[in-house]
């Protein structure tokens, strides 16, 4: 395993565009993505469904051509250096399939024979807790078990770079944690991992770096803390149309979803003033909630298309 | 074609395993092409016409079922189940995937064509006049029909619709030899029919094995040396169709179901 290229990114993408269809039906799913995945890191590409994550990955995987832009994977070109890249990468597709008439063990043996340096089938069965299901035909497996076989295949070649497209979608919480453990294990082996997810918890738990994607573009980059930093804190309570809008630090007051929400850049100051106003006017704020910026609030703001103030947040972006 | 023999053979073996686990596919790929051998029991023992009709039928069935229809169905199935998409994320090359899907059917068809020789001899037929021509006919037939299978797959939506989309090729291949053998037909039609892949296939058998000179011949008249010049035309026709099929297939390969 090669982990000495600390400065050189394992994946480098510049100005990537991908368009489906032509003419009037043309749809641009990826609209100028720049992305660096540092070698040895776990980088999460986070976004809602339709943000362009899978379309981006398919170009990195060499499965689809880019309409424009430059892509290098392990310093190589995904299409012209395909054979070399494939030896060194493991890919888990968001949706893929198996021949139902083969057993789990046979499926892994079939895959193993196509790899240059496969890890033993039994080791993979153990790693993915599939020993008990080894002799069961694929068509009899649950969705989660099938996903684990898929993961076993992706990791069998002992890859330097692992691309996982929504590895835990459809898994129960226990299997999800098992996948997290595996991904952490990959880090310890020195591998680089690029993972997509729409689960915030997953991204926060696993990733060293986040790339938040929306409408075909990367709109935020950085560590989870960096991304949340500079994003407004929120104070919310049962609807009060009469709440003053000029409290210290408050940037915006939103009345929606049967709730009043204050966005503030100075949570403590705003809260103090709010409490003072409430006491003075003998107002009781029902269901009061105050919270520091979280990845969730950033993500939801982006997903809703009300990305409030991106300028101070370009922390880790390039 | 860039291809690792080891990986291709490995995958072909697993495709064979899968074939044995699907009863219908197995019948199409292995049992069907054996049935025409029974035709050797009909007609006068040792008659060239009976022999030629049995072996051309065997060629047709071996080409259409284990190769054409089977390869088409397997490819469409694997594509729709996203097995091919997953395989393509690994070290396997496209050429290896294509070859490994075609190989079990090809092996079955070629195997049956060879088994036919001792079986026919046992039923009173002569050994092939020119076995090289007979084998060349078999090899071009399986390559051509595999390529037609991949081309057909490109515009076949699902394994079920393959029952329909396979019809044009099946009809063209089966009716060619029929037309050439109907005597009352206008010459233009008969001449045209000679250029169909099916006619070329059956002429290769009639000339290569039985030394029959032309579609109407009923008695062996050609010797080994003469078969070469008479077979030149059907050989050219089948080689041309093989190239057409390969170029159509190459241009239309599709690895994922239409979304």
TrEMBL record, chain A:
Gene3D superfamilies: P-loop containing nucleotide triphosphate hydrolases (3.40.50.300). GO terms for cellular component: plasma membrane. Keywords: Antibiotic resistance, ATP-binding, Nucleotide-binding, Transport. PROSITE patterns: ABC_TRANSPORTER_2 (PS50893). It is found in: Cell membrane. This is ABC transporter ATP-binding protein. It is a peripheral membrane protein. GO terms for molecular function: ATP binding; ATP hydrolysis activity. Pfam families: ABC_tran.
From TrEMBL, chain B:
One of its GO terms (cellular component) is membrane. InterPro entries: ABC-2_transporter, ABC2_TM. One of its GO terms (molecular function) is ABC-type transporter activity. Its main location: membrane. It is found in: Membrane. Residues 13-208 form the ABC-2 type transporter transmembrane domain. The chain crosses the membrane at residues 24-42, 54-76, 97-119, 131-155, 167-185, 228-249. It comes from the Bacteria. The keyword Endoplasmic reticulum does not apply. It is a multi-pass membrane protein. Keywords: Membrane, Transmembrane, Transmembrane helix. Coiled coil: none annotated. This is ABC transporter permease. It comes from Solirubrobacter phytolaccae. The lineage of its organism: Bacteria, Bacillati, Actinomycetota, Thermoleophilia, Solirubrobacterales.
């Amino acid at each position: 395993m090669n982990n000495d290229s600390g400065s050189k990114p394992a994946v480098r993408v510049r100005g990537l565009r991908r368009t489906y269809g032509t003419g009037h039906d043309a749809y641009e799913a990826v609209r100028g993505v720049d992305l660096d995945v540092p070698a040895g890191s776990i980088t999460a590409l986070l976004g809602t469904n339709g943000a362009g994550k899978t379309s981006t990955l398919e170009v990195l995987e060499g499965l689809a051509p880019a309409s424009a832009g430059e892509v290098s994977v392990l310093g190589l070109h995904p299409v012209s250096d395909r054979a070399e890249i494939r030896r060194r990468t493991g890919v888990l597709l968001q949706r893929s399939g198996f021949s139902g008439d083969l057993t789990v063990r046979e499926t892994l043996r079939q895959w193993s024979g196509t790899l240059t340096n496969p890890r033993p089938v039994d080791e993979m069965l153990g790693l993915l807790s599939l020993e008990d299901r080894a002799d069961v035909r694929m068509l009899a497996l649950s969705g989660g078990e099938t996903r684990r076989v898929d993961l076993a295949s992706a990791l069998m070649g002992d890859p330097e770079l692992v691309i996982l497209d929504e590895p835990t979608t459809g898994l129960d919480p226990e299997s999800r944690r098992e996948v997290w453990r595996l991904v952490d294990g990959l880090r310890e082996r020195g591998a680089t991992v690029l993972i997509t997810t729409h689960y915030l918890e997953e991204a926060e738990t696993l990733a060293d770096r986040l790339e938040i994607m929306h409408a075909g573009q990367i709109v935020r980059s950085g560590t989870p803390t960096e991304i949340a930093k500079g994003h407004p804190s929120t104070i919310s309570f049962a609807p009060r149309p009469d709440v003053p809008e000029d409290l210290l630090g408050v940037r915006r007051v939103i009345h929606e979803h049967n709730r009043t929400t204050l966005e503030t850049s100075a949570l403590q100051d705003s809260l103090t003033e709010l409490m003072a106003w409430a006491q003075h006017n003998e107002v009781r704020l029902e269901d009061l909630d105050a919270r520091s910026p979280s990845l969730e609030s950033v993500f939801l703001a982006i997903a809703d298309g009300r990305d409030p103030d991106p300028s101070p947040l370009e922390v880790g972006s390039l | 074609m860039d291809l690792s023999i080891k990986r291709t053979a490995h995958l072909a073996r697993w495709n064979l395993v899968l074939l044995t686990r699907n009863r219908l596919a197995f019948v199409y790929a292995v049992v069907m092409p054996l049935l025409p051998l029974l035709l050797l029991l009909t007609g006068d023992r040792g008659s060239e016409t009976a022999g030629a009709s049995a072996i051309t039928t065997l060629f047709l069935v071996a080409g259409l079922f284990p190769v054409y229809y089977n390869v088409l169905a397997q490819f469409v199935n694997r594509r729709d189940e996203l097995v091919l998409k997953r395989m393509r994320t690994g070290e396997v090359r496209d050429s290896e995937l294509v070859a490994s899907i075609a190989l079990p059917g090809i092996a079955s068809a070629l195997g049956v064509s060879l088994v036919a020789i001792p079986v026919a001899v046992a039923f009173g037929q002569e050994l092939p006049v020119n076995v090289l021509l007979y084998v060349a006919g078999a090899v071009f037939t399986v390559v051509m029909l595999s390529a037609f299978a991949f081309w057909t797959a490109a515009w076949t939506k699902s394994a079920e619709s393959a029952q329909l989309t396979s019809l044009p090729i099946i009809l063209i291949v089966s009716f060619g030899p029929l037309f050439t053998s109907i005597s009352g037909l206008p010459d233009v039609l008969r001449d045209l029919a000679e250029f169909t892949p099916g006619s070329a296939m059956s002429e290769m058998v009639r000339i290569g094995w039985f030394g029959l000179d032309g579609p109407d011949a009923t008695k062996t008249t050609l010797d080994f040396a003469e078969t070469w010049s008479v077979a030149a035309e059907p050989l050219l026709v089948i080689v041309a169709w093989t190239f057409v099929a390969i170029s159509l297939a190459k241009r239309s390969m599709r690895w994922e179901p239409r979304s």
